[in-house]
Amino acid sequence: MSPLTVNGVDLLADHAGALWWPERRVLVVADLHLEKGSALGLPPYDSRETLGRLERLLDRLAPSQVIALGDSFHDRNAEGRIGEADGNHLSRLTAACDWVWIEGNHDPAPAGLWGGRVAREIVVGSLVFRHQAEDGRAAGEVSGHYHPKLSVAVRGRMVTGRCFLSDEVRLVLPAFGAFAGGLDARDPAFRRLFGRGLAAHVLGVSRVVRVPLG
Predict the structure, then answer these.
(1) Which of 16, 155, 175, 186 is the 20 to 30 Å CA partner of 69?
(2) Spans of all domains in the chain
(3) Tens digit of pLDDT per residue, the chain (214 long)?
(4) Longest CA–CA separation in the chain, Å
(5) Closest CA to 91 of 113, 65, 119
(6) pTM value?
(7) Fold of 2-212
(8) With helix as H, strand as E and coil as C, how does the chain read?
(9) CA distance to 107, 138, 159, per residue, from 32 (Å)
């Protein structure tokens, strides 16, 4: 895990693409996009893979709370396409702790069929958790939506990885979903959100690498 600070709170960026708040035992994930595969007419293996990775995180960290930062389901009809086995799997995960579904733009009313509670945003201590970053200097804001990624040179070749973006005032998480795409971390959309000291925390196979962006 890679340490980072947001609004004075010490957090850890996990190489699996989740945020861990050890003091409060809160696990945060963004943009699961469950059932994106079935929405595109593909086999729904993305949901199975995403839920499996999520379960391994819960087993490893045993959080007291999970916050899913919106777009957990790819669209409003995802609940009708998810298979019985994957639905039961999701129910087991949400029953393990206090589970919060944040409303996203793809899933403005996240399905409650599998447990958990729904909120537009929540405040925990000096952090506010919402789906999409708001304009202005939102101190302590933790969000998803943009699916940041960054290309870096590794041993003479360019490698692209999902990443966290933070300037220690606010934080944008990478997408956790297996089929989620990404927006380059140097895109102007991010420049209007962050100030000086912006850094990307790029996901590797077994570690997170911090890359200063200015």
Answers:
(1) 186
(2) 2-212
(3) 889 999 999 999 999 999 999 999 999 999 998 887 666 767 767 889 999 999 999 999 999 999 999 998 877 777 778 888 888 999 999 999 999 999 988 767 776 678 899 999 999 999 999 999 998 778 999 999 999 999 877 666 777 889 999 999 999 999 999 877 789 999 998 988 998 899 999 998 888 989 999 7
(4) 48
(5) 113
(6) 0.92
(7) Purple Acid Phosphatase; chain A, domain 2 (3.60.21)
(8) CEEEEECCEEEEECCCCCEEECCCCEEEECCCCECHHHHCCCCCHHHHHHHHHHHHHHHHHCCCEEEECCCCECCCCHHHHCCHHHHHHHHHHHCCCEEEEECCCCCCCCCCCCCCEEECCEEECCEEECCCCCCCCCCCEEECCCCEEEEEEECCEEEEEEEEEECCCCEECCCCCCCCCCEECCCHHHHCCCCCCCEEEEECCCCEEEEECC
(9) 11, 24, 23
